[in-house]
Amino acid sequence: MELKDFFEKTPRAALALSGGTDSSYLLYAAKSLGADVRPYYIKTAFQPEFEFVDAKKAAEFAGAELTVLELDVLGAPGVAENPADRCYYCKRALFTALTARARADGYTVLLDGTNASDDMDDRPGMRALKELGVRSPLRECGLVKSEIRRLSDEAGLFTAQKPAYACLATRVPTDTPITAEKLARVERSENALFDMGYTDFRVRLTAGDGAKLQFPRDQLMRAAAEWDEISKRLKNDFTAVVLDLNGR
After folding, report:
1. Are 108 and 14 found together in one domain?
2. Residue 230, Cβ density class (10 Å: 0-12 exposed, 13-18 middle, ≥19 buried)
3. How far apart are alpha carbons 110 and 132 in whole angstroms?
4. Inside any domain, residue 238
5. What pLDDT does residue 137 have?
6. How many CB atoms within 10 Å of residue 144?
7. d(Cα 81, Cα 87) in Å, to the nearest integer?
8. pLDDT tens track of the chain, all 248 residues?
9. Is residue 165 part of a domain?
10. Best exposed site among 68, 192, 208, 211 by fewest CB in 10 Å?
11. 18 and 140 fall within a common domain
12. Would you say 247 and 214 are in contact if contact means Cβ atoms under 8 Å apart?
């Protein structure tokens, strides 16, 4: 099945738009095929501001009006406690809220950007999507990440080569409670590193208000050379900062 076949059978749906490569391409493709697909962005403490900016740009590029929902995800059961399957509880809360809003707007089918490369067996959040009946057209049509990037390039989407980005909650060790303050420190620190030109890295919390920085291997030497500047930029948020020499 191709996307045109999917949207011929499902011409009207709501889409969870994250601002990433997959959901941005799905929105563009749906609108190009004439489908009535309405994008929604769920704004929580887990998403950095740049993801919201990218979602707005993706919606504008596709010629769609973005609906924004704000949700206190830390108040949802099982989320702030940060168990190993936290993603299940988070996705359950997000997509339950999105389903209710979409139905109020007249959309009974809900889509997400899961692609055929994603491992359905090793992602607790996928279980929540399945339970809620969320459809994943990219996966159903067999589109893998590399193909989605190629098609996005051809379409001129700015998200074509955007690195995959896990939410801020993944920076907090499992079973360590998540707070808005911890997430804010991570976002400030990652923004500081983005400003220095680093990409596709992670600032992970460690015990005692410390942080471990994980860069791709091709950026490790530069990070080591600029360590004094990195430490200076992050010192207000962390008592100790270490560089993971294994890389990402």
Report:
1. yes
2. buried
3. 9
4. yes
5. 97
6. 14
7. 11
8. 999 999 999 999 999 999 999 999 999 999 999 999 999 999 999 999 999 999 999 999 999 999 999 999 999 999 999 999 999 999 999 999 999 999 999 999 999 999 998 776 557 888 989 999 999 999 999 999 999 999 999 999 999 999 888 899 999 999 999 999 999 999 999 999 999 999 999 999 998 889 999 999 999 999 999 999 999 999 999 999 999 998 88
9. no
10. 208
11. yes
12. yes
| Pick from 147, 177, 140, 157: nearest CA to 63 | 157
- For tokens 């098609």, the residue is 151
Phi and psi at 34, nearest 5°, equal 85, 10
**Tally of structural domains, the chain:** 2
Query: Which residue blocks in the chain are alpha helix, DSSP H?
Result: 3-9, 21-32, 49-62, 86-104, 124-131, 137-140, 145-155, 180-195, 217-225, 227-234
Q: State the CATH number of the domain containing residue 204.
A: 3.30.300
Residues 113 and 224 in one domain: no
Q: Is residue 20 part of a domain?
A: yes
Token pair, residue 147, equals 């193909």
Identify whether residues 44 and 124 lie together within a single domain: yes
Tokens of 166: 């896990």
Q: Domain range spanning residue 98?
A: 3-155
Buried b (16+ CB within 10 A) or exposed e, 44-63: bbbbbeebbebbbbbbebbe
SS3 content of the chain, % helix, strand, coil (to 5): 50, 15, 40
Residue 113 shares a structural domain with residue 46: yes
**172 within some domain:** no
> Which of 186-190's residues contact partners 24+ apart within 8 Å by CB, and which partners?
186/211, 187/48, 187/49, 188/237, 189/233, 189/234, 189/237, 189/238, 190/48
